[in-house]
Amino acid sequence: QVQLVESGGGLVQPGGSLRLSCAASGSTFNRYAMGWYRQAPGRQRELVATITSSASTNYAASVKGRFTISRDNAKNTVYLQMNSLKPEDTAVYYCNADHLVSHRMHWGQGTQVTVSS
Question: Which tens digit of pLDDT belongs to each residue from 2-11?
Answer without folding.
Answer: 999 999 999 9
